[in-house]
Amino acid sequence: MPYVTEGPTGEVAQTDMIKHLLGRKGPSGFGSASTAEKVAKNWDGSGKVVIITGSNTGLGKEAARVLAARGAEVVMAVRDTTRGEAAAQDIRSKHPNANVKVMACDLSSLASVKDFAAAYKATGKPCHILIANAGVMACPFMLSAEKHEMQFATNHLGHFLLTQELLPLLSSTAKQASSNSRVVVLSSAAHFNPYKKEAGGPIRLDAIDSPERYDVWGAYGQSKLCNVLFARELHKRLTAEGAPVTAVVCHPGVIMTELGRHFEKTMSPVMRTVLPAAFSWAFKSIAQGAATEVYLATSPAIKGGEYYADCNISPSTAASHDDELGRRLWQLSEKMLADAGIN
Ligand SMILES: NC(=O)c1ccc[n+]([C@@H]2O[C@H](COP(=O)([O-])OP(=O)(O)OC[C@H]3O[C@@H](n4cnc5c(N)ncnc54)[C@H](OP(=O)(O)O)[C@@H]3O)[C@@H](O)[C@H]2O)c1
């Protein structure tokens, strides 16, 4: 299994960048230029239910639109239901037959995640695909409802709980459908840049919630490394149990979305202007950015436990292949749930 020990300046990442710029297709038949619509073109979503977190804007909203247009029922799990309803309405205006529903789920509150899962299970509906898409990037030091560092809490811990809560339903749905259900986790190439070793990295297991030496990018990279480790560990556990659920993880590309909403607080005005201009050549459109998560939700050819970029299996860091680190992260996450009174 290929993986790299270098950061994004390493040889493998550079090769990937050239492939990205050329829009060259990989073994899946898709590449960086493929759109979500294109990768889902032959998928029949009728009878399928997909839950997508953070789907009121950005990549999640585009994934919701495309999967609903292919006939799936899409549950938009969002923290702001007013924004969620506006997004759902926008999708319905483009696709009058779209079956999209909005439900409240704030990933930075374990109680809210638990409530969402309970409310969803109470509907009696199945769940074929869970897309853990919601994310927050490079925010100033903040704490979640249960007093965990915000990027870790939102990007990893909330999704960890949501997945645990929905696993029995994903399994029973798969048995009825006679095909595996899926958990698709959104990570990032930022997982190449978690905390440095001297700052307690790559994951500050003993100091996740400490404001000391908090670094906005270290914390984002850490949370995105958690996403890869979680998906791999989950897939390993599901395989060992013989559960009919496949877990995969992806980097969607670099896309101008609302993800940079905290830059005003954490980046100088000059950097906010210069950086997007300097890197505009590397950006994907939102339609292209949503392609990899939609590919992982719909393709019959995906491989569980793998990290994908541009709709193809892609190298990820050595830390993301560290089984011991994955186990320790799992244990810490379970402890945090137990400390919050959630078993
Ligand atoms: N864009 C990129 O270049 C890029 C690159 C690599 C990885 N990613 C990953 O792709 C995913 C989607 O990002 P995006 O670019 O589409 O960003 P985005 O436009 O900012 O969308 C993020 C979504 O997450 C939601 N969210 C944030 N905090 C939440 C919370 N506590 N509870 C529930 N929902 C919450 C947001 O809701 P609100 O609107 O209410 O805030 C929004 O719907 C993220 O996981 C991100 O890390 C993006």
UniProtKB/TrEMBL annotation:
Domain of life, source organism: Eukaryota
Record keywords: Oxidoreductase
One Pfam short name: adh_short
GO molecular function terms attached to this record: oxidoreductase activity
InterPro entries, alphabetized: NAD(P)-bd_dom_sf, SDR_fam
PANTHER family in the record: RETINOL DEHYDROGENASE, RETINOL DEHYDROGENASE 11
Family of the protein in this entry: Belongs to the short-chain dehydrogenases/reductases (SDR) family.
Name used for this protein in its record: Uncharacterized protein
Source organism: Tetradesmus obliquus (Green alga)
